[in-house]
Amino acid sequence: MFNLIFTRRYSMAHRLLVGTESKCAVPHGHNEQVIVRLEATAPGRLDGAYNMVASFAAAKARWHRWIDDAVDHTLHLAETDPLLDFFRDREPTRLSRLLITPGDPTTEMLALCFMTKLDAFLEHDGLRLRCAEVRIEETPTNTVAFAGNPADFLPARAEEANRPPWWRRPDMSINDLDRQGRAS
Question: Which domains does the chain have, with CATH numbers?
């Protein structure tokens, strides 16, 4: 089976409040690399003319734009992080630069959210591709790879039927803070 593989580098900062590593509770940054592996939803023979599973340009356009414009140089926080109140009260214009996750914004959580977001883009664009794997290199020595159905691993939560969380929507969002200024 053919796979299309794309790599993108971005900078980010986050903090982890729940885990046992107290040094990670202080906001700190990483220069991360995300590698995605796409596969055809209905694999088959090449047609002898076009001979592509999908155009590289079409398959990566929205994904790369989202990483470059929405994810790069963001602060990743849990939806319950008290720093959200600081930004709401003192720097509301920066709310759009906060990537919000259910629970701590670990690399594992990012892999699940990123895969779900990429699949939403691919489906919305009518491409017959799905994300088969996401690898995030947090540091040169620490990588998280995920292959599977992210819905089986994301925390259970009530979702509004008319507006799923940002990671399930094919828009450029990275949070849901526009809902009464609060994360969902």
Answer: 3-168 (3.30.479.10)
- CA–CA gap between residue 183 and residue 79 (Å, rounded): 6
- Predicted local distance difference test score (pLDDT) of residue 52: 84
For residues 119 and 123, what is the distance between their CA atoms, to the nearest angstrom? 6
Strand, helix or coil at 150? Answer: helix
SS3 17: coil
Please name the helix (run of DSSP H) or strand (run of DSSP E) that holds residue 184, with its range, or none: none
Q: Which 3 state secondary structure label does DSSP give 159?
A: coil
Q: How far apart are CA 43 and CA 122, in angstroms?
A: 16
Model pTM score = 0.93
Q: Which two tokens stand for residue 155?
A: 């925390």
Q: How confident is the model at residue 82 (pLDDT cuts 50, 70, 90)?
A: very high
Query: What is the C-alpha to C-alpha distance for residues 64 and 51, in angstroms, rounded to an integer?
Result: 24
The pLDDT tens digits of the residues spanning 107-165 come to 999 999 999 999 999 999 999 999 999 999 999 999 999 999 999 999 987 666 678 99
Contact 168, 176 (CB under 8 A): no
110 residue type, one letter = L
